[in-house]
Amino acid sequence: MNTQWTIGIIGGSGLYAIDGLEDAEWRSVASPWGTPSDDILFGRIGDVGLRFLPRHGRGHRIAPHDIPVRANIDALKRAGCTDLLALSSVGSLQEEVAPGQFAIVNQFIDRTVTRPASFFGTGLVAHVSLADPVCERLSAFAAAAVQAAGGRVTEGATYLAMEGPQFSTRAESLMYRAWGGDVIGMTGMPEARLAREAELPYALVGMVTDYDCWREDEAAVDVNAILSHMAANGAIARAAVKALVASLPAERTPSPIDTALDGAIITASMARDPALVERNAAILSRLKR
């Protein structure tokens, strides 16, 4: 059992670097699921390993609906990550979740429609539980770290994942509010689904950049306004990563998510597609020991 922390940081809009990283080195990590968004920045802060992957690639060149999510999660698994912390810019669907704040996500409503959402399929069928889609332990560390970095935090947020790349219509935004959404973004799904299949505890910190267009008495979402909040949020997010690392216990105790695939694979061993099994070599490595 691995008792060392290795935190994968998936950086979204506004977070393209990690401060204070020691022994930093960009490395290419190949995946049978395609080419990841970018190389992975390997390093450490003290005794904690860090693996940083810019979700949109350096220079923000990959659109939300084109992000190679399976390759990204698989590559982070192959890079030795024990846990994943995702940071994403989001819009607000609630008055009290104001631009400039941070939202710790605990639930998702998935409205994406074109993105491959599983490592499994015909020839290797698996059904993991996603009732509680994030890691409670890592989310608590993240909330405390944002506060320590000087950020205002809302915990227990529901994230509405939309397809994009366009922003919502006003009717959609009002509907998402009625559904109970707190924040809205384009990248949290299927990222969280795939992290669970990869047995990687996952937490998502939403960096709130704007009110979505449900506020009828003000202008619709404006990219320039979003960019200004991104810059401020990004500085706090980088400080929060360092605070989170400093807060971790010296020893990583097991998480129930570490064994999420136990009992989830229902295809009989003699009926499994060898090619799909091999493609999932990193995801299934624990079960082959």
Short note summarizing the structure:
The protein has a domain at 84-282: 3-Layer(aba) Sandwich (Rossmann fold), CATH 3.40.50.1580. It has 6 helices and 9 strands. It has helices spanning 69-78, 136-148, 170-179, 191-197, 223-247, 274-279; strands at 6-11, 22-27, 40-45, 48-54, 83-92, 102-110, 153-161, 183-185, 202-211.
Q: What keywords describe this structure?
A:
alpha/beta, 6 helices, globular, Rossmann fold, single chain, 5-stranded mixed barrel, 9 strands, 289 residues
**Structural class determined from secondary elements:** alpha/beta
The low-confidence parts are none
What characterizes the major β-sheet?
Answer: 5 strands, mixed, barrel
Number of strands: 9
Give the terminus-to-terminus CA distance.
12 Å
CATH superfamily of the domain at 84-282, by name, is: Nucleoside phosphorylase domain
CATH class bucket of the domain at 84-282: Alpha Beta
How much strand?
15-25%
Helix share, percent: 10-25%
Q: Mean pLDDT across all residues, rounded?
A: 93
Provide a count of the helices: 6
CATH architecture call of the domain at 84-282: 3-Layer(aba) Sandwich
Rg computed from alpha carbons, rounded to a whole number of angstroms: 18 Å
Description:
By secondary structure, the chain is an alpha/beta fold. It has a domain at about 85-280: Rossmann fold (3-Layer(aba) Sandwich), CATH 3.40.50. Helices cover about 25% and strands about 25% of the residues. The chain contains six helices and nine strands, in the order ββββαββαβαβαβαα. The protein has a five-stranded mixed barrel with strand order 5-8-7-6-9.
